[in-house]
Design a protein that fits this description.
The complex is a heterodimer. By secondary structure, chain A is α+β, with helices and mostly antiparallel strands. Helices cover about 35% and strands about 25% of the residues of chain A. Chain A has a single domain, classed as Gcn5-related N-acetyltransferase (GNAT) (Aminopeptidase, 3-Layer(aba) Sandwich), CATH 3.40.630. The longest helix of chain A has 18 residues. Chain B is built from five helices and eight strands. In chain B, the strands form two sheets. In chain B, strands 1-2-3-4-5 form a five-stranded antiparallel sheet. In chain B, strands 6-8-7 form a three-stranded antiparallel sheet, with helices on one face. Classes of the chains: A alpha+beta, B alpha+beta.
């Protein structure tokens, strides 16, 4: 399917392409990937990249490669994720090594959520975060999420469920409150 | 890859894998049938692999088709091109659901897929990586005219490489004619038994 492109002030969210393989390998080889099923080798990383593209066909939504507008550098993998066995559709944010601490996950996560609510008509969304992934939990808090139970996945293990504010909550609080 | 091409053969329609075909894929890949293809997989792994089969088209510009019956639309398996990171070369790959085997569907679909890659995408060669214990698959490779190529790199040493005939070797040759004849016999058998054999 044709994967849409989203723009934020500093970032572009676009479809995965073959040249994203190198940053994928680096990310899944890094310690940062331990919160999202890593570390993984080259072959598994390639299959993850292909999976990200195919996710869009299977679900009608998926995750984008997030690119810095200024440098065109891929900085992360952010978007809507719902493989088989997931408790419900989630908004996920994985930043590649060296791009944390700049608010990119919050910026792209908010754009992905707006797409889910405004374009796809979702009425709710969650994010799954491993308990010791404090950086990711802070992003969830900045996006206005509340801790809403736990989920254990056969592959990914124990994770906290963070519930996003609903479209109505966001309208009442003003989008700016969470942007 | 915004659009996966469609191929029509005598009995089959090869189309991009679609969400509604997933249960058929999952049934095979979570079963013993998947033992030569990295399986059996659990439900999560099988979904992730199915998504990767589709996304392979986006990343590489070629990939695996879902094989449907042209008339009933039911699925029989998947056939096409496959080259994840560790594969030394582009592979022609196939999997037929266990209860649909033995009717020549993989032969018919793989022959059409190979022709597509040779003619439309200008491939000059292709291989199939096969577990040496997978005798049905080796036999299919040979019926497609492929020959064992021990000089070619394998994936990890646990597979054997079968080299497909070149585009020239499949153009108006006796080999091509033989493959088409075998496919033709599956579609319209020369010998049609009537009633029950008695002896």
């Amino acid at each position: 399917m044709l994967i849409p492109t989203l723009h934020t002030p500093r970032l572009t969210l676009r479809a995965p392409v073959e040249s994203d393989f190198a940053p994928f390998v680096a990310f899944y080889a890094s310690d940062r990937s331990k919160f999202v099923g890593g570390p993984l080798g080259r072959e598994a990383s390639w299959r993850m990249l292909a999976m990200e593209a195919g996710h869009w066909t299977l679900r009608g939504y998926g995750r984008w490669i997030v690119e810095e507008n200024e440098t065109k550098t891929p900085v992360g993998l952010i978007g809507l994720f719902n493989p088989e066995g997931w408790p419900e559709a989630e908004i996920g944010w994985d930043l590649f090594e060296g791009f944390e601490g700049r608010g990119y996950a919050t910026e792209a996560g908010a754009a992905a959520r707006s797409f889910a609510y405004d374009t796809l008509g979702w009425t709710t969304a969650i994010s799954l975060v491993k308990p010791d992934n404090t950086g990711s939990a802070r992003v969830a808090e900045r996006l206005g999420c509340r801790h809403d139970g736990d989920f254990t996945h056969e592959r990914h293990g124990f994770m906290h469920v963070w519930r996003h504010p609903s479209p109505e909550d966001l309208a009442e609080g003003g989008m700016e409150a969470y942007a | 890859m915004s659009q996966i091409p469609t191929i029509e053969t005598t009995r089959l329609s090869l189309r991009g894998p679609e969400p509604q075909d997933y249960p058929d894929f999952k049934a095979t890949f979570t079963s013993y049938r998947a033992r030569f293809m990295g399986g059996p997989l659990n439900a999560y792994e099988s979904w992730m692999l199915y998504a990767a089969e589709i996304g392979h088209w986006d990343i590489r510009g070629f990939g695996m088709w879902m094989v449907h019956d042209r008339v009933t639309d039911e699925t029989y398996g998947m056939v096409g091109g496959w080259q994840p990171a560790k594969w030394p070369e582009r592979e022609i790959a196939w999997v037929i659901w266990p209860d649909k085997a033995g009717r020549g569907y993989a032969l018919e679909a793989a022959h059409a897929a190979r022709s597509y890659f040779y003619r439309q995408q200008n491939w000059e060669t292709a291989v199939s990586y096969i577990d040496p214990k997978n005798l049905d698959s080796i036999r299919l490779a040979e019926r497609l005219g492929a020959q064992r190529d021990d000089s070619a790199a394998s994936i990890d040493g646990n597979d054997v490489v079968y080299r497909h005939p070149s585009p020239a070797a499949l153009s108006g040759t006796q080999l091509a004619h033989g493959i088409e004849m075998e496919i033709g016999h599956y579609a319209d058998p020369l010998f049609k038994p009537e009633g029950w054999a008695i002896d």
